Amino acid sequence: APYSKPSVHLEPSKDLKPGDVAEVTCHASRGYPEASVLWQDSRGANLTANVTTWQVANEEGLFEVRSVLRVLVEPSVTYSCLVLNAALHQHGHASVTITGQPLAFPAVALWVTVALAVCVVALLGVLAFVCHQKIRESCREDEERAGPEERDEEGEEPKTALQLLENTESREGREQEID
């Protein structure tokens, strides 16, 4: 008796990513004698070594065949099941193409990354503020410790070399105007 046209089922059937394990099940029924089941991928490679196959006869003596192929998901690969009835020179064929999604950054990981980045930026801002406050406090303490002995004759704070040069030039300019 010829087998029914094979049907193929993929489990899990959605949200597959490259590297996930999936099971492709091929099922045909009501045939006699026992069938041979062959599996191939879209490149023509024989995958029968990765298969578990069961054949059970019903009360009429006709066989139901179920074959399960375990695969690591690769995008756009087609898996084909071929059910052969050698006595009748009959074969049935069914296939499924796994359109696995490309590797993607999971949404949860994206939110965790954004939250961590915001925390790091906030921490850096607080650290910069604290450092700025410490520097200002340190400068005030230095000014208080400096006292009058470090002030110049006009009672001003010590100046940088550039400020001294500018003061000297402005004094010379004023003296020339007076002459």
UniProtKB/TrEMBL annotation:
Classification via Pfam families: C2-set_3 (PF22705)
Any one biological process term the GO annotation gives: T cell receptor signaling pathway
CC annotations in GO: external side of plasma membrane
Coiled coil feature spans: none
Predominant cellular place of this UniProt entry's protein: membrane
Transmembrane regions listed in the UniProt entry: 108-130
Domain Ig-like: from-to ranges: 6-97
Subcellular location: Membrane
Biased composition regions of type Basic and acidic residues, renumbered to the chain: 139-149, 168-179
Region of interest: Disordered: 139-179
Gene3D superfamilies xref list: Immunoglobulins
Protein name: CD276 protein
Alphabetized UniProt keyword annotations: Immunoglobulin domain, Membrane, Transmembrane, Transmembrane helix
Annotated PANTHER family: BUTYROPHILIN (PTHR24100), CD276 ANTIGEN (PTHR24100:SF155)
SUPFAM superfamilies: Immunoglobulin (SSF48726)
Molecular-function annotations in GO: signaling receptor binding
